[in-house]
Amino acid sequence: MDGKDISLQKYMAFLATVECGSFTKAAEKLNYSQSGISRMIKDLENEWKVTLLDRDRNGVYLTSEGKSLMPFAQDVVHSYERLQAEVDGLTGLKSGIIRIATFSSAATHIVPKIIEKFQKDFPGIDYEVLMGEYSEIEQWVSEGRVDCGFTVLPPDGDFDTISIGEDPYMAVVPAKHPMKDLQKFPIEEFGKEPFMLLEHGRHEVIADYLSQNGILPKVHFATWEDYAIMSMVERGLGISIMPKLILKRTPYRIKAIPLSVPLSREIGIILKNKETASVATKKFLEYVNS
Question: What is the DSSP code (8-state) at residue 155?
Fold first, then answer.
């Protein structure tokens, strides 16, 4: 934090403490002393004449005043980070950070490949990757918490988008299922056997797909956790429908079969505004489909 304006340091200390839930963890994140973090927040409270945080044995929590002022502190810090990213870009991307939001399967199978290619040309760039659901990813991009987000298109909000490609859904059955060797899995079966429903917040793609095809599944288990579904299917507790990307290199004894009536999702990247994105982010995006 050396070299930054003292007010900016205080804002960063405030945000880090809220994010980490303690002065100790915030100090570790910012490479500062715990007493220094505590002092800077106390200075802010004195300057603004409000109490920003409540403190108890379990950690620290935002007060109502803190909740009201936190977005403004975020704006200041994010503006500084964008400014620094531009400076880094003008000096040849020798340093800087790209903040990325993503969902789990993209974090495992898509994001690392892009970073690997980008890192070869720009080894001085660092990365922060936040994992979340689609709605959280959109919120983080909208707030400026991250530079870009990997998600399913189209998004709910007003964003600039970049398509990566289609990800087909597959029927998922136990490894010894009687229909494991079929070239196409008949979707009628989803109305006959116990069904494990994968849900991802506002995206009810699978439920809508079955309904549109006149199938009422016997839902025995519903969750947003991919691995829980695969474990249930492996144990013969039911069958499911899951995106192909999730099923790559799975350790579970299951079989993925194309659906007799195709279904897919479009994976892409969202940005608040392509034109105002940092130089590092713009350069990173050039590697997405390369």
Answer: P
Two tokens at 197? 């429903």
User: Amino acid identity of 103?
Assistant: F
Assign residue 271 a region: left if phi > 0, alpha if psi is -120 to 50, beta otherwise?
Answer: beta
Chain center to CA of 123: 23
Q: What angle, rounded to 10 degrees, do the helices at 34-48 and 6-20 form?
A: 110
Euclidean distance between CA atoms 264 and 169, whole angstroms: 5
Task: Tell how far CA 148 is from the center of its chain.
Answer: 10
Tokens found for residue 218: 């016997």
Q: How far apart are CA 134 and CA 146, in angstroms?
A: 14
Alpha-helical segments (H) within the chain: 6-20, 23-30, 34-48, 64-90, 104-109, 111-121, 134-143, 205-212, 226-234, 279-285
| Distance separating alpha carbons of residues 269 and 271, to the nearest angstrom | 7
DSSP secondary structure code for residue 44 in this structure: H
CB neighbours of 237 closer than 8 A, spacing ≥ 6? 194, 196, 220, 221
Distance between CA atoms of 7 and 33, rounded to whole angstroms? 17
Confidence at residue 130, expressed as pLDDT on a 0 to 100 scale: 94
pLDDT (tens digit per residue) in 152-177: 999 998 999 999 999 999 999 999 99
Are 233 and 221 in contact by the 8 Å Cβ rule? The answer is no
Q: Is 182 exposed, middle or buried (0-12, 13-18, 19+ CB in 10 A)?
A: middle
Whether 163 contacts 264, CB under 8 Å: no
Q: Mind giving me the DSSP string for 51-82?
A: --EEEETTEEEE-HHHHHHHHHHHHHHHHHHH
Structure tokens at 14: 């405030």
Average pLDDT over residues 177-199: 95
* Contact present, 105 and 150 (Cβ < 8 Å): no
* DSSP code, position 108: H
